[in-house]
Amino acid sequence: MNNKSHSLNHLAIIMDGNGRWAKKRHLPRFVGHKHGMETIRTIALAANELGIKVLTLYAFSTENWGRPVDEVKYLMRLPIDFFDKFMPELMENNVKVNIMGFRDEIPDKTYQIMEKAMAETKDNTGMVLNFAFNYGARKEIVSASQKLAKKVKDGSLMPEDINEKVFAEELLTASLAPYDNPDLLIRTSGEERLSNFLLWQLAYSEFEFTEKLWPDFNAEDLKELVADFNNRDRRFGKI
Ligand code: FPP
What we know:
The chain is α/β, with parallel strands linked by helices. The protein has a single domain (10-136, 180-230), classed as Decaprenyl diphosphate synthase-like (Undecaprenyl pyrophosphate synthetase). It contains seven helices and six strands. It has a six-stranded parallel sheet, sandwiched between helices. α1 (18-24) packs across α2 (29-49). Bound molecules: farnesyl diphosphate. Farnesyl diphosphate binds next to α1, α2, α3 and β4. The site of farnesyl diphosphate has 18 residues, from α1, α2, α3 and β4.
């Protein structure tokens, strides 16, 4: 187990409540997403300052395609706006961008800008800002199983050699090792569910929930939740 008790290397966040934030103000949902994008900047810089090594953000799930067409279109535009606006700041802060998810139906323009952000920041040595985009944990686990099955079929792997380590190497988080498993998961907006996020990787993570809606979540809130995490005793099933 690479996670030491009390060290926060990998923080994962389910950014929730953009729609409700907008509704409360009688604004269209996209305005909530626009403000949510600003929160990503704030929290990424704050996490970097806290010395966090990997920040994974659930930006678009495999289920989000079921939202109204206009909202999906807007969400596909957000990475373009985000990197256009914040790329210089990410570079200044030595942040390395990673995109984790399935290529599938992502529009070319969105995909290209994400690839460009990864390429431009690839030599940065600071925090990894990992966007889960068109990500779904069950799809990830099925896809890992298929890759292993192919290896067994072509004779390069024996079924009895499949173990947790071998399995984890086929997951989308493999490149984040040794910090592939989040130490802490935060979900904003008062909802307390996983919504198909990192089902394998969160097996031993601590969870923190806050009522704050994502556009209202700030560096102070993050620090409070991290302080709470730091006061916990993580035993990983031991005593
Ligand atoms: C949850 O609010 C938020 C989302 C579904 C998307 C958030 C994504 C971003 C802000 C940025 C995207 C990406 C990049 C790569 C910069 P909700 O709409 O589920 O809120 P609700 O539950 O109140 O309706």
